[in-house]
Amino acid sequence: MSLHYDMPLFRPPSEGDNLIIQATLGCSFNQCSFCAMYRSKDYVERPLHEVIADIRQAAADWPDAQRVFLADGDALALPTEHLLSILNELASALPRLTRVSCYATPGNIARKSAEELVQLREQKLNQLYFGIESGSDLMLKKITKGATQKRMAEVLQKAKDSGMKVSATVILGLGGTQHSNEHIDGTIALLNSAPVTYLSTLQLYLDESVEAEFHRKFGEPFQMPDDLAILKEQERLISGLTPPQPVIFRSNHASNALALAGNLPKDKDKLLVQLHEAMAGHRPLRPLFMRGL
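Above: the chain's sequence. Below: its structure in token form.
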């Protein structure tokens, strides 16, 4: 592939084998205290002609590409007509295209009308990666997420109603040792009221570039949970989930101490058994040197 990307470039693990097109640079929000991904970039909407040139170049190199991820942080922030032009070009250049996806924030889902989301989905932008992080209003305020549990539930329902799939993430350990139950119980409440298609858990890791900001915004001493505490959070989360629709669950991100996979609620008991085995020391955890973002 001869495309030249504006680095750093991030994408969800599941998009690793797919074509990546940078429709924007950076993140339009870029205030979450735990996230260092786009701190080195200002948010920029790339000119349409540059994006189209990238699509045509990529199509020449990979004409059979079937899935495309629109980077950087949240391409959904683009004006709808701009996005539709990109999607139309992708469909024209890639005849086997089946899916386009991107990151999405609560704010930029909220700013799209229901009709706009349907238009985008009809042009194959049909999966959004959405960072829930926590369903607790206290935690959401402490990490400067820019949304409440109520707003999260509203935009997740809006995405579902438009026919889009949502792949959501939750960050274990985000409340520290002192707010663990608050963090998990708020997250359970959100996930039991709002539809998501996929759910993944990550384990909190603070890059040194944001560590001081995270602690300052947290507003009180923060103690990082150990692996056993993280496993207990996972157990509490899975035990409490009764989602409004079946959810494909994964904790296979490289940050996690324990990789889990199943469908909820069908595989709840199986997942809990695996967690209990790990907590008892009968199932190995991923070594620290193999973990990362």
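The first helix runs from residue 48 to 61.
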